[in-house]
Design brief:
By secondary structure, the chain is mainly alpha-helical. Among the domains are: 60 residues, no CATH class; 94 residues, no CATH class. It has 8 helices and 2 strands; from the N terminus they run ααααααβαβα. Strands 1-2 form a two-stranded parallel sheet. The protein is extended. The two termini are 56 Å apart. 4% of the residues are buried.
Protein backbone atom coordinates (compact mmCIF):
# COMPACT_ATOMS: atom_id res chain seq x y z
CA UNK A 1 0.00 0.00 0.00
CA UNK A 2 1.50 3.33 -1.04
CA UNK A 3 1.81 6.07 1.60
CA UNK A 4 0.07 9.34 0.93
CA UNK A 5 2.16 12.49 0.64
CA UNK A 6 1.97 15.35 3.13
CA UNK A 7 0.06 17.49 0.68
CA UNK A 8 -2.77 14.93 0.63
CA UNK A 9 -3.20 15.28 4.41
CA UNK A 10 -3.05 19.09 4.46
CA UNK A 11 -5.16 19.84 1.39
CA UNK A 12 -8.91 20.33 1.86
CA UNK A 13 -11.19 17.59 0.50
CA UNK A 14 -12.08 17.94 -3.16
CA UNK A 15 -15.48 19.40 -3.78
CA UNK A 16 -17.87 17.23 -5.82
CA UNK A 17 -17.92 20.17 -8.22
CA UNK A 18 -14.12 20.24 -8.58
CA UNK A 19 -13.65 23.74 -7.15
CA UNK A 20 -10.60 25.35 -8.76
CA UNK A 21 -9.72 27.09 -5.48
CA UNK A 22 -9.24 23.75 -3.70
CA UNK A 23 -6.97 22.51 -6.47
CA UNK A 24 -4.82 25.64 -6.28
CA UNK A 25 -4.53 25.23 -2.50
CA UNK A 26 -3.43 21.61 -2.90
CA UNK A 27 -0.78 22.60 -5.44
CA UNK A 28 0.45 25.40 -3.17
CA UNK A 29 0.82 23.08 -0.16
CA UNK A 30 2.50 20.43 -2.24
CA UNK A 31 5.20 22.86 -3.35
CA UNK A 32 5.59 24.81 -0.11
CA UNK A 33 5.85 22.21 2.65
CA UNK A 34 9.09 23.71 3.92
CA UNK A 35 7.62 27.21 4.00
CA UNK A 36 4.62 26.10 6.04
CA UNK A 37 6.79 24.09 8.43
CA UNK A 38 9.04 27.13 8.91
CA UNK A 39 6.07 29.39 9.66
CA UNK A 40 4.50 26.94 12.13
CA UNK A 41 7.77 26.23 13.93
CA UNK A 42 8.75 29.87 14.34
CA UNK A 43 5.24 30.92 15.36
CA UNK A 44 5.24 28.29 18.10
CA UNK A 45 8.69 29.38 19.27
CA UNK A 46 7.63 33.05 19.29
CA UNK A 47 4.50 32.29 21.35
CA UNK A 48 6.45 30.29 23.93
CA UNK A 49 9.19 32.94 24.12
CA UNK A 50 6.76 35.82 24.65
CA UNK A 51 4.82 33.87 27.28
CA UNK A 52 8.01 33.02 29.16
CA UNK A 53 9.22 36.62 28.93
CA UNK A 54 5.98 38.05 30.35
CA UNK A 55 5.93 35.40 33.09
CA UNK A 56 9.51 36.15 34.16
CA UNK A 57 8.89 39.92 34.19
CA UNK A 58 5.69 39.61 36.23
CA UNK A 59 7.13 37.15 38.74
CA UNK A 60 10.30 39.18 39.26
CA UNK A 61 8.82 42.69 39.36
CA UNK A 62 5.16 42.32 40.39
CA UNK A 63 4.63 40.21 43.52
CA UNK A 64 0.99 39.32 44.10
CA UNK A 65 -0.87 39.66 47.39
CA UNK A 66 -2.45 36.24 47.85
CA UNK A 67 -3.49 34.55 51.09
CA UNK A 68 -1.53 36.77 53.47
CA UNK A 69 -2.81 37.11 57.02
CA UNK A 70 -1.34 40.59 57.64
CA UNK A 71 -3.28 42.43 54.94
CA UNK A 72 -2.83 46.06 56.06
CA UNK A 73 0.97 45.83 56.17
CA UNK A 74 1.19 43.79 52.99
CA UNK A 75 -1.06 46.14 51.07
CA UNK A 76 0.93 49.19 52.14
CA UNK A 77 4.24 47.58 51.25
CA UNK A 78 3.46 45.66 48.06
CA UNK A 79 0.50 47.10 46.18
CA UNK A 80 2.11 50.46 45.18
CA UNK A 81 5.29 48.87 43.73
CA UNK A 82 3.17 46.13 42.16
CA UNK A 83 1.03 48.76 40.45
CA UNK A 84 4.09 50.60 39.17
CA UNK A 85 5.55 47.35 37.87
CA UNK A 86 2.31 46.56 36.05
CA UNK A 87 2.41 49.97 34.39
CA UNK A 88 5.97 49.36 33.23
CA UNK A 89 4.97 45.94 31.92
CA UNK A 90 2.08 47.50 30.02
CA UNK A 91 4.50 49.87 28.30
CA UNK A 92 6.82 47.00 27.35
CA UNK A 93 4.36 44.31 26.29
CA UNK A 94 1.13 46.27 25.82
CA UNK A 95 -0.69 46.69 22.52
CA UNK A 96 -0.33 50.30 21.28
CA UNK A 97 -3.30 52.44 20.29
CA UNK A 98 -5.73 50.10 22.06
CA UNK A 99 -8.28 51.59 24.43
CA UNK A 100 -10.65 48.71 25.08
CA UNK A 101 -10.05 48.37 28.82
CA UNK A 102 -12.86 48.76 31.35
CA UNK A 103 -13.31 52.00 33.27
CA UNK A 104 -11.69 51.51 36.71
CA UNK A 105 -13.76 52.00 39.87
CA UNK A 106 -10.91 53.72 41.69
CA UNK A 107 -7.34 54.82 41.15
CA UNK A 108 -4.97 52.20 42.56
CA UNK A 109 -2.35 54.78 43.51
CA UNK A 110 -4.58 57.72 44.51
CA UNK A 111 -7.61 55.87 45.92
CA UNK A 112 -9.93 58.31 44.13
CA UNK A 113 -13.35 56.73 43.49
CA UNK A 114 -15.16 57.14 40.18
CA UNK A 115 -18.72 57.93 41.29
CA UNK A 116 -20.23 57.20 37.87
CA UNK A 117 -18.72 53.70 37.78
CA UNK A 118 -19.82 53.04 41.37
CA UNK A 119 -23.40 54.04 40.54
CA UNK A 120 -23.41 51.80 37.46
CA UNK A 121 -22.07 48.84 39.45
CA UNK A 122 -24.71 49.33 42.14
CA UNK A 123 -27.49 49.41 39.56
CA UNK A 124 -26.31 46.38 37.56
CA UNK A 125 -24.13 44.14 39.78
CA UNK A 126 -24.87 44.82 43.46
CA UNK A 127 -26.78 41.78 44.76
CA UNK A 128 -27.71 43.49 48.03
CA UNK A 129 -29.15 46.50 46.20
CA UNK A 130 -31.08 44.18 43.87
CA UNK A 131 -32.53 42.20 46.79
CA UNK A 132 -33.54 45.40 48.56
CA UNK A 133 -35.37 46.65 45.48
CA UNK A 134 -37.15 43.37 44.73
CA UNK A 135 -37.57 41.71 48.12
CA UNK A 136 -41.40 41.67 47.93
CA UNK A 137 -41.28 39.32 44.93
CA UNK A 138 -37.82 37.80 45.33
CA UNK A 139 -37.96 37.04 49.06
CA UNK A 140 -40.63 34.29 48.94
CA UNK A 141 -38.66 32.50 46.20
CA UNK A 142 -35.36 32.27 48.09
CA UNK A 143 -36.45 31.52 51.65
CA UNK A 144 -34.34 28.63 52.99
CA UNK A 145 -32.18 28.64 49.87
CA UNK A 146 -29.25 30.95 50.65
CA UNK A 147 -26.16 29.38 52.25
CA UNK A 148 -23.15 31.71 52.17
CA UNK A 149 -19.62 30.81 53.25
CA UNK A 150 -16.68 33.22 53.27
CA UNK A 151 -13.34 33.70 54.93
CA UNK A 152 -13.28 36.69 57.27
CA UNK A 153 -9.95 37.75 55.67
CA UNK A 154 -11.00 37.41 52.05
CA UNK A 155 -8.13 38.09 49.65
CA UNK A 156 -10.22 40.73 47.86
CA UNK A 157 -12.09 42.03 50.95
CA UNK A 158 -15.34 40.46 49.74
CA UNK A 159 -16.18 39.50 53.33
CA UNK A 160 -17.19 43.13 53.93
CA UNK A 161 -20.01 42.87 51.40
CA UNK A 162 -21.14 39.58 52.95
CA UNK A 163 -21.38 41.23 56.38
CA UNK A 164 -23.54 44.01 54.94
CA UNK A 165 -25.81 41.44 53.29
CA UNK A 166 -26.18 39.47 56.52
CA UNK A 167 -27.03 42.59 58.55
CA UNK A 168 -29.75 43.55 56.10
CA UNK A 169 -31.23 40.05 55.86
CA UNK A 170 -31.56 39.90 59.64
CA UNK A 171 -34.02 42.81 59.36
CA UNK A 172 -36.09 41.57 56.41
CA UNK A 173 -39.88 41.38 56.63
CA UNK A 174 -42.64 39.89 54.48
CA UNK A 175 -41.01 37.43 54.54
CA UNK A 176 -38.43 37.51 57.28
CA UNK A 177 -35.49 35.36 56.27
CA UNK A 178 -32.03 35.88 57.82
CA UNK A 179 -30.26 33.41 55.50
CA UNK A 180 -27.38 31.16 56.53
CA UNK A 181 -23.91 32.69 56.91
CA UNK A 182 -20.66 31.06 58.03
CA UNK A 183 -17.32 32.84 58.36
CA UNK A 184 -13.96 31.09 58.32
CA UNK A 185 -11.57 32.40 60.96
CA UNK A 186 -8.63 34.11 59.17
CA UNK A 187 -9.49 32.26 55.94
CA UNK A 188 -8.79 33.77 52.48
CA UNK A 189 -10.71 33.82 49.21
CA UNK A 190 -12.40 30.60 47.99
CA UNK A 191 -13.01 29.29 51.52
CA UNK A 192 -16.22 27.25 51.28
CA UNK A 193 -16.74 25.90 54.77
CA UNK A 194 -15.09 23.45 57.15
CA UNK A 195 -16.02 20.34 55.15
CA UNK A 196 -14.54 18.81 52.01
CA UNK A 197 -15.99 19.41 48.56
CA UNK A 198 -17.36 15.86 48.51
CA UNK A 199 -19.16 16.44 51.81
CA UNK A 200 -20.51 19.75 50.54
CA UNK A 201 -21.95 18.03 47.46
CA UNK A 202 -23.65 15.46 49.69
CA UNK A 203 -25.18 18.29 51.75
CA UNK A 204 -26.44 19.94 48.58
CA UNK A 205 -27.93 16.66 47.34
CA UNK A 206 -29.72 16.08 50.64
CA UNK A 207 -31.09 19.63 50.53
CA UNK A 208 -32.46 19.08 47.01
CA UNK A 209 -34.09 15.81 48.11
CA UNK A 210 -35.78 17.52 51.06
CA UNK A 211 -37.29 20.03 48.62
CA UNK A 212 -38.26 17.39 46.08
CA UNK A 213 -41.81 18.05 44.78
CA UNK A 214 -44.43 15.33 45.06
CA UNK A 215 -44.62 13.05 42.07
CA UNK A 216 -40.98 13.50 41.07
CA UNK A 217 -38.15 11.00 41.27
CA UNK A 218 -34.40 11.21 41.90
CA UNK A 219 -32.76 8.21 40.24
CA UNK A 220 -29.40 9.99 40.51
CA UNK A 221 -29.25 9.52 44.31
CA UNK A 222 -29.08 6.17 46.18
CA UNK A 223 -32.13 5.53 48.34
CA UNK A 224 -34.24 8.32 46.82
CA UNK A 225 -37.64 7.91 45.19
CA UNK A 226 -37.41 6.25 41.80
Amino acid sequence: MALRGQSEFLAPPRSPFGTPGSERFARFVGHNDMVLAHILTNSLFYGVAVTAYVLVVMVSTSPRVWGYSDYPQVVRSKVPPQTSAEKRLALIAGVPFFDGYFEPLFGKLTGEINDDVAAYWKEHYDLLAYMQRHWATLGPKIVDKLHIYTGDMDTYYLDVGVVLLERWMQQTTDPHYPGFFMYGDRQPHCWSGPVTQAERLREMAQFVLRKQPDGTTAPWWPGARR
